[in-house]
């Protein structure tokens, strides 16, 4: 499906309901997406909303759960670059169920949409990912990252001699980066409860309707899971002026 122009998505869902237990004590009094990256004065979700707006998104639905009121209060008083609606999971629905629940509040249900996990800090051209998705006629496209291994690696030869030590090498495997482009019809394929990565995605992969978009070379990506991730993100932001 190349050649014909197509509209890029202008709506998105942010999954922001997780408890963030590995980020305690930061998450004792706030949900994970409300944790600030040191030195920026802005919570993770604030950076995400700014990025989405820069990429042409005009409407975002934020799926809340753990300490939802804290997030809603911040959204109410913040100066936001786009329209934001919140929905609250009164009981855990799983990632797939949470996506389906939030997608029901998208303003344009007959149009494609982006989605992102609420603990991802990244910058890359979403419109290019949407073009990739469209060209492959995919039902869903997930961004793929190649994170660095947090340990040093040892390189050996076939005989067992150590040749080199490599500090935090890139992983040989691509991983799900937690950012997606979905066709409008994808919503109907999501489970009401449970994890779409164990149900919907494997089914689409078998049908060759699931695409994987490798993040462009040099694109910044980090999942904020631990206090060390916060420290590393602050250091990277400071050194690279992001």
From TrEMBL:
> Sorted alphabetically, which SUPFAM superfamilies does this protein's record hold?
Nucleotide-diphospho-sugar transferases
Keyword Transferase in record: yes
Q: Which domain of life is it from?
A: Bacteria
Keywords, alphabetical: Transferase
Pfam families referenced in this protein's UniProt entry, alphabetically: NTP_transferase (PF00483)
Which Gene Ontology molecular function entries are recorded, alphabetically?
transferase activity
Query: Gene3D superfamilies recorded for this chain?
Result: Spore Coat Polysaccharide Biosynthesis Protein SpsA, Chain A
Q: In its UniProt entry, what is this protein called?
A: Nucleotidyltransferase family protein
The Nucleotidyl transferase domain covers which part of the protein? 12-237
* UniProt organism field: Streptomyces piniterrae
């Amino acid at each position: 499906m190349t050649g014909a122009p197509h509209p890029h998505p202008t709506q998105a869902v942010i999954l922001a309901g997780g408890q963030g237990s590995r980020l305690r004590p930061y998450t004792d009094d706030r949900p994970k997406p409300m944790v600030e990256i040191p030195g920026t004065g802005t919570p993770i979700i604030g950076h995400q909303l700014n990025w989405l707006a820069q990429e042409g998104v005009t409407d975002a639905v934020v799926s809340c759960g753990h300490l939802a009121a804290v997030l809603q209060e911040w959204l109410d008083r913040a100066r936001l670059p786009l329209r934001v609606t919140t929905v609250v999971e009164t009981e855990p629905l799983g990632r797939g169920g949470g996506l389906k629940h939030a997608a029901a509040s998208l303003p344009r249900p007959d149009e494609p949409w982006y989605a992102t996990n609420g603990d991802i800090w990244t910058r890359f051209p979403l419109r290019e990912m949407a073009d990739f998705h469209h060209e492959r006629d995919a039902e869903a496209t997930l961004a793929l990252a190649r994170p660095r291994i947090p340990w040093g690696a040892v390189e050996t030869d076939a005989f067992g001699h150590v040749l080199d030590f490599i500090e935090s090498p890139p992983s040989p495997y691509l991983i799900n980066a937690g950012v997606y482009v979905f066709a409008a019809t994808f919503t109907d394929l999501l489970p009401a409860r449970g994890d779409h990565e164990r149900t919907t995605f494997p089914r689409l992969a078998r049908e060759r309707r699931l695409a994987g978009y490798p993040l462009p070379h040099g694109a910044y990506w980090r999942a904020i899971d631990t206090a060390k991730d916060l420290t590393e993100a602050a250091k990277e932001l400071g050194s690279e002026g992001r």
